[in-house]
Amino acid sequence: MNKYKKNTHFLIILFLFFCNTSLLFAQYTDKWISLKYEFVRHKPNNFYFSKMVDERKDKVKVGFVYGENQTQKTLKLNGGTFKSLQNHFSKLFIKDSSNYPIIFKIEELSIDENQVNSKITGKCKIKVTYSFQRDTSEIKLTDFQTAITFNRTQGDYNNYETLLSKVIEKSVIYFDGWMKENYDKNPKLIKSLKLVLNPDYQIESPEKGDTIFWSPNRKMSWADFTGTMPKFTKYSAQIFTNFEYFAPLKLEKGVLNIELQMKAYMLKSGSWTSSSGLSGYSIAHEQVHFDITKIVVERFKQKAYQILTVDNYDSELQLLFIEMYREINRLQKEYDDESNHSINVLGQHKWQQFVDEELRKNR
């Protein structure tokens, strides 16, 4: 009799174990859903999706919800989240080389519910980052996040697809508006550079107030040297020359046009002479100083073509300016040393030939 009692107890325990196990498994069934509709209702503003990245820690489920009999279910998208969204975005994945290839990064996409008494509250959330691949750099453009809260009664619920579609639609409508607002304005949207060389400033009308701009049609005279001669100097004349650059920018269809314009000039008030009756040979020496400034300006232009990159164009232009400033100081000193400030006739002749040849190259 004891033997049968023991067996009966064992069977009861085993039965209870399997019942509890069945209930346990029943509590964590999956609920599969599909996104209901294609939300792209108009042509996007100058972009298409080239890539989608799911950066969520859990890339399988979308969240936890409640079904019949208060059963908690794992919410999943048919075919997986990645494939389901790609299908949903199908029209936006059509490549157009004239538009921006946008990377759509999902940082959060979820629906979670809480049950309090007989009511269920839920929240559908999305967080997305938008960027695009510029050469080897990925440029972050903007991000977006939003949420929809909802309340419902107990029981099975079939509106999750619509909720997800709505938050996804909001994210793309936001980015579409961002592109419309920033297109041809935001430096983040630069795809490439184009250097446009404008004629040197005032080259056709070289005289302006105290300034004379270098021009092949305007040679200097001693009347241009209006500055005050220093009290203590061993030289009979000195010219003040300099150069500057302007680089106004214009973004057009992803191409940043840099309209480079150079200034090569001398200042009358910064240049002086001991006598207006000095020889033509002496004024030719000062003209070579001015011509050297123009030569360095031309070297600046050529180097600007070579080193400009999208990510660092501004700093590279500034570094080039510093480099060319050192170059002009080096050449001016070398010229004065070799010509001995025009006293060495052979040295003067050598540099005159040098500047003539350099200027001919750039006509």
Task: Compile the SSE list and pairings.
Blueprint: H1 2-26, E1 29-33, E2 47-54, E3 63-66, E4 72-77, H2 81-88, E5 100-116, E6 119-134, E7 137-153, H3 160-182, E8 192-197, E9 207-208, E10 211-213, E11 237-238, E12 241-246, E13 249-252, E14 255-267, E15 272-273, H4 280-307, H5 313-339, H6 345-361
Parallel strand pairs: 1-4, 2-5, 8-14
Antiparallel strand pairs: 3-4, 5-6, 6-7, 9-10, 10-14, 11-15, 12-14, 13-14
Helix pairs in contact: 4-5, 4-6
What is the residue-averaged pLDDT?
89
What would you call the shape? Answer: rod-shaped
Give the % helix.
25-40%
The number of helices is: 6
Q: Element order, helices and strands?
A: HEEEEHEEEHEEEEEEEEHHH
Whole-angstrom Rg: 38 Å
Identify low-pLDDT runs.
Answer: 10-27
Number of E-state strands: 15
Indicate how many domains the architecture comprises.
Answer: 2
- The N- and C-terminal alpha carbons lie at a distance of 120 Å
**How much of the residues is beta strand, in percent?**
25-35%
Helix/strand-derived category reads alpha+beta
Give the biggest sheet.
Answer: 6 strands, mixed
